[in-house]
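Weekly puzzle thread! Below is a chain. First person to post its structure in token form gets bragging rights.
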Amino acid sequence: MKQIKLTSKRLAAVRAIILSAAVSMLLFGIFRGEPAVVLQKAVRICLECIGIG
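Winning reply:
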């Protein structure tokens, strides 16, 4: 198996690409309204655990 050497410039570029992909996915989820859906599901699960829902 051949190892790939990452220089500091390549490592910084890879980190920047991963960070930009993560931020773009986070923003995409926010614009789709996913935080409200997650909160609604969390409340439902919590209420079911304590026997109210």
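Puzzle host: Confirmed. Bonus trivia for everyone else. The CA atoms of residues 19 and 45 lie 31 Å apart.
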